[in-house]
Prior knowledge:
By secondary structure, this protein is of the alpha+beta class. It has two domains: 2-109; 113-150, no CATH class. Helix content is 51%, strand content 18%. The chain contains four helices and five strands. It has helices at residues 41-56, 81-109, 113-136, 142-150, and strands spanning 2-5, 13-14, 28-34, 59-65, 69-75. The chain has a five-stranded mixed sheet with strand order 1-4-5-3-2, with helices on one face.
Amino acid sequence: MLEVGKLVGTRLVEAPREVLTESVPGKAYHITIETKGVIDEQQVVDTLTTELYTRFKAKVIWMRIADDIIDIQLIGSPFVWGALLAFLPTILAMLGIVVVLISLYSVLAAIPGWAWGLLVVGVGMILLGPKLAESVSGGFGREKAYKVIRGI
């Protein structure tokens, strides 16, 4: 669990109840997001803090990331809640894609170069091997080999 900032003890307004309205500047709001788990908590904190301020001028004053719940407290600025709440799943999905791509890269980077070379040679032999063998043998393909073996 990661907790950043200072929790405001004043009366908070749950954001989903005011989805169709604008936020009030200076008022503290609380957002709870249920996720399927967060891999890199610090990256989520950094991204949400900067993106919420950049796009909506909403200042995050406290954030807690537990196993599958993200709690955010922010100070309102004039923004529409519908736009903010539509933005959150998008940014979290982008973070998930980035984490998957980083994991894929780290797995692929751990494979040594000679293994990649063997893979290329193996695929080349599977694709080009039969044609190459037929051209080297001077047209002595399967049919002729079968006839020679059977004595026909």
